[in-house]
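Let us begin with a simple case.
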Amino acid sequence: MNRPPGGGAPEGRTTVVTGGAPDCRTTVVLITHDRRDELLRTLTCLRRLPERPRVIVTDNASSDGTAEAVARHFPEATLLCPGRNLGAVGRNLAVRHVRTPYVAFCDDDSWWEAGSLRRAADLLDARPRLAGVTARIVVQPEGVEDPVVRELRESPLSGPGWLPGPALGSFLAAATVLRTDAFRAGGGFHPGLWLGGEEELLACDLLRQGWWLAYAEELTVHHQASRQRDSTARRVLGIRNTLWFTWLRRPLLPALRRTGHLMRTVPRDAASARAFARATAGLPWVLRLRDPVPPELEHRLAALERARRTSPARRYVG
């Protein structure tokens, strides 16, 4: 089901737009699956942004009436219904419909703060080799910073002086504005990973192409974690995809070392066992597509790996 931009506020609601002219440089893309209430809250927040961005939603085969609710209450959004759960590839589908130079990702339980999309576009306009900027994440309803923000702010990577903030080796799809052409040149999110840490592979390939990624303190995304989140399933996917990325892009010795470190440090339980079993089952396609990065980029990946070992945001729990 596709719905073109346009339309007004649903009956019984008021569209609240804060000051400032619309900004047509950025399209917001998000994926959802069985999180109707959280998605409707997010779309309400996005509707109120002064930038008034076009919003594209990929509904990954929800069974809770999500698509119907979006079509009824947010007719101005473009709604894509592929009929199956595409995971992160649902974002690739949405980006095919993007006609703006920049695409802002968020999750169905996160939303951009007023003015941040405009500022992100300004930062990207001024820096042609900057592929994307990642925002500060504030956890709601507490209003505190997500633990991952400290990791972004204290990134060990160096970069050119024109970057708007610390250089990054990856990004967070819930809080990043990317250059649309860079996303397409990098191939989008790999279908083999499906979901869970899928950003790492795309980020690596962007860096390999000569793009830069940066953290921008002046941008803000709010995140109120969905109650529908299955933390154990996410941990299984996260470990599996970390292993797959490692063997897709890291040279042999670093790949062996990282695999060994994960084996020693992940929780010793059934979920971790499932993750390693699934990673092993996928090795035939991973090794077939294996393409290790050059030494300069491996040096940066190794620095990131060392920093993440002490990050409270990188614990495999759940």
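The second case is a distinct protein. As before, the sequence precedes its structure tokens.
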Amino acid sequence: MPRSGRQLRIAAHGYEAVIASIGATLRTLTFEERDLVVPFDADAVRPGYRGATLAPWPNRIVDGRYSFGGEQHQLALTEPERAHALHGLLAWVEFEDRLVLDDRVVLAAVILPQTGYPFRVEVEVEYRLDAEGLQQTVTAHNVGADAAPWGAGPHPYLVAGQGCVDDWTLLLPASEVLTVTPDRLSPVGVEPVSQHPEWDFGSARPIGDVFIDHAFTGLIRDGGLAEVRLTAPDGHGVGMAWDERCPWVQVHTADTPAVADTHRIGLAVEPMTCPPDAFNSGVDLVTLDPGATHAASWRIFAL
């Protein structure tokens, strides 16, 4: 068994993807043999959260503490350097196969009641390829007796083409950005991107040496879809689109200056159903009642 789990390959219309069962992770995605996401080896321990499915919350819960239903909860601090609970509870869980076809796979896992999250939620993750790219859908079903807080998102690192993040052009149609503290990246407040021109990519422009690790909202949509586009100097690129179920998107320039092999090699684009620390702020947080379901999806495609 490879370290990243079972390898599920799907292909259609020039696209090919490999899904690793641990974390229902998008390990590779290519179009006509061109990488659209930063890949990793099947027998590697997945680097961080690269390609993982994030649930029952994306991003951070500050100090790992929150209150829900009149009860206080304390989660494990899985981002110890900043003392936060990061990216949910499923990233290192082995998903089971529900359906495996040539162009579609469905995997599932159950979040069991545990310290900090005493709720039972079944999570189904579908990856499907068609002529418009790769669509991922995450569906939660509350199979427990109590209402549960819920949020979800993906964690792909997009690749436009040759070079690195500095060389690529970004189009990010967002009018607002969530500012954060410089040390712990804890949320501060939502502000217009016009007040932060370094993060204003409402018109496509080169990223250059700009550092980004922020959530954006006020997304400008066309036909109900928000769309991020990342292009290389040769005109090739990659895009990502999603609907109103995800009113937020986290963007990160993958800065790891101490590790040259991964420094700014891809741009993380993470549509999210809720913002960082939503378990405390309540902003766009889904309350999943017993028996209820919630689904959100996003699509990655070649340019």
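The longest helix spans residues 278-281. Residues 29 and 242 are 18 Å apart (CA to CA).
Keep these points in mind for the review questions at the end of the chapter.
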